[in-house]
Each structure stands twice: as C-alpha cells, then as structure tokens.
Task: inverse folding
C-alpha cells in the first residue's frame, strides 16, 4: 500500500489509551429500538442510482445521535501505530467514490428461504480502509480480523448489546473498495444512514457496513459480540449434511425484474421484452430468462460491471401464442454460482404478465 503522507496524526502510546473514550461523541439513541423501512417494489426501482427516499433502512437497536464536532475514530488493536482521528482529519485524507449495490440480508432470526429484495444502488464517498491500515501498520501474522464498533447500543430480538460490533477478515478489509464513508450520493451521511461516518463493505451484505462508526480494531479472532455469534450466521448451502454454518458476508447472485411490471397487459406483440438488475459479490456474467417455470432458458444481454454496481440486463423472447406468462430471471456470477429457483433467500424473481392479440 502506498499513499501520500497523511495529515498530522497523534499516535497513541500504549499507556495513553482511554477505553471507549470515542463513545463520548454519542448524544442519544433516538428513536430507540428496531426500525425498518422497506424499499419500493422492484418495478419502481427504475433509476440507476437509488435516491435516499427509495433506499431501504434497517436499524437494529436504535439510531445514534452523534456530535460531529467531538466525533473521533480510534484505530487500534494488533497494530504498530494506534491512533485517533477526528472528522476534519478524515476529510483531509485521500478519498475515493465507489458505486455499489447495497443489500439487506433480511431478518437474522428467520430462515433465509424467502427473497426480500431489500436492494438499492448508491455511490459512497470516503477514505479507503486500506489507507488507514497503512498508517496503523497491522501485524499481518496475528491480525486476522478487523472489528468495527458503532455508537449504537440497546436490545435486538431480546438480546442486549453495549455496541453494534462486526468483523471483517483482514483480506477484505485491505481490499481497495472498502471505505470509511462520509457521503452517499454526493450528500453527507444522515443520522439514519449512519452518519457522520460509517463503514461500507461493497459486495457484502449491509449488516457488515457498521453505521455510526467509532472504532476499528485489528484482532486475532472474530468478534464475540451478538451480531457475529447469535445473529447473522447461516447454514452453508454447500454442506450436504446441513450442519456447517458460515458468516453472512458475501452476497450471492441475485436479480430483480423491473420491466415489464407485474400484471402488465401487452397487446399485439410476439415478443416479451424487458429489463432488470443483477448483482452479487462477484461480477454477474450471465442472466437467463424463462417463460415456462425453468424448463427452458433464454440468454439476456448483461452490461459488464465497472465497480460493484448492480448490472443492467435486458431480454427479448419470442412467444408462440397469447396467454399468461410468468417471467423468471436467473443470474450466474463469474465463479459459477447461480440463483436457485426456490428455497433460498436469493431465489429467482417472478413477474406475471398477459400477452394478448389485437383481436381480443
């Protein structure tokens, strides 16, 4: 990692660390408790960038009200040079913007068998986490994870926590797309979006992008907090015995059909035409469309990915006769992973339409 020199930073002596001093920037948790704002239906997500009003919100324990003037981020743990920094110092550091899909995994207390399509596509701006770690100089032999702390606290699903804490493997933390973000779609982060500063982990589920960020700590093990142990672990679908669990990290291939709209009536055409969006941790390289519940599939056209944005696909499929049709779209990523027809949280979408002749 090579970057320009950072703005002046006061490194922390080992005996000078005041535990949790960064949490003094918290004014209140308001409103308290779980909150969710569902996104519009897929056919309404027709803009390339999802505006704030159309982007889902998920808040586990309540929204942190933060004093931006006293906010600081502490970087510590298994590093050579731990340090704190304020918002002004963060904004003076090299920044970048990453356009990325943003997806909610869904409820961590129900089986992941239904696709909830809590999805959007936004442009984040901030400082690469890789850059902050280059300043701190992590111990690469022992430091295997980066823990991230949010300023929120409270109770979720009957479990209390003094902070929202997640972890990333060091390899993902060092990926250039992972940001310490302070803007979304060109605007400062609001309280509801985790402002003034949040972690953003493109390609991974939103639960990993800690809001109201206040501490990053390089550690040898995974976090023992409830949001990595009690919640957000799932049965690994590749385990034939159905026993092994895995963290809710990488996003599997998924898609939505934006056009045609559900229950749309198309008159006088011999073709079903439409478009949608596909996304995943790895680039989507193929999207197929079926009109017969998966018996046959027709290849769609897919726009290649530039960063981590959702990918536009379009299709035009010939029909032999008028009638009712259920359109399904199936995405496959570059690793070969493919959307299942049913039974998983990323199962294929289905849109029912009616094709009619001009004589009917």
Result:
């Amino acid at each position: 990692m090579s970057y320009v020199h950072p703005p002046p930073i006061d490194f922390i002596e080992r005996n000078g660390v005041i535990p949790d001093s960064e949490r003094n920037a918290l004014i209140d948790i308001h409103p308290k408790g779980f909150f969710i704002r569902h996104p519009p239906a897929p056919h309404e997500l027709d803009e390339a960038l999802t505006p704030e009003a159309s982007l889902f919100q998920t808040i586990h324990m309540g929204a942190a009200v933060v004093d931006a003037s006293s906010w600081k981020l502490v970087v510590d743990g298994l590093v050579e040079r731990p340090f704190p920094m304020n918002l002004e110092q963060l904004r003076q550091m090299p920044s970048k913007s990453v356009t990325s899909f943003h997806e909610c995994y869904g409820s961590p207390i129900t089986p992941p068998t239904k696709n909830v399509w809590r999805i959007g596509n936004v442009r984040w701006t901030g400082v690469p986490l890789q850059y902050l770690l280059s300043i701190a100089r992590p111990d690469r032999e022992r430091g295997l994870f980066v823990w991230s702390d949010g300023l929120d606290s409270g109770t979720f699903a009957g479990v209390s926590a003094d902070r929202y804490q997640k972890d990333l493997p060091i390899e993902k933390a060092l990926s250039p797309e992972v940001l310490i973000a302070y803007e979304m779609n060109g605007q400062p982060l609001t309280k509801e979006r985790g402002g003034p500063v949040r972690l953003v982990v493109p390609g991974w589920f939103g639960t990993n992008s800690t809001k109201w960020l206040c501490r990053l700590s390089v550690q040898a093990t995974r976090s023992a907090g409830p949001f990595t142990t009690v919640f957000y672990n799932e049965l690994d679908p590749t385990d034939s015995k159905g026993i092994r669990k895995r963290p809710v990290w990488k996003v599997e291939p998924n898609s939505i059909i934006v056009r045609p709209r559900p229950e749309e009536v198309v008159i006088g055409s011999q073709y079903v035409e439409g478009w949608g969006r596909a996304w995943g941790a790895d680039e989507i390289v193929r999207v197929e469309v079926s009109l017969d519940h998966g018996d046959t599939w027709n290849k769609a056209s897919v726009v290649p990915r530039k960063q981590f944005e959702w990918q536009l696909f379009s299709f035009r499929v010939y029909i032999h006769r008028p009638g009712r049709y259920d359109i399904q779209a199936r995405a496959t990523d570059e690793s070969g992973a493919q959307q299942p027809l049913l039974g998983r949280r990323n199962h294929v979408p289905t849109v029912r339409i009616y094709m009619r002749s001009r004589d009917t």
Summary: The radius of gyration is 22 Å. The chain has a mean pLDDT of 94.
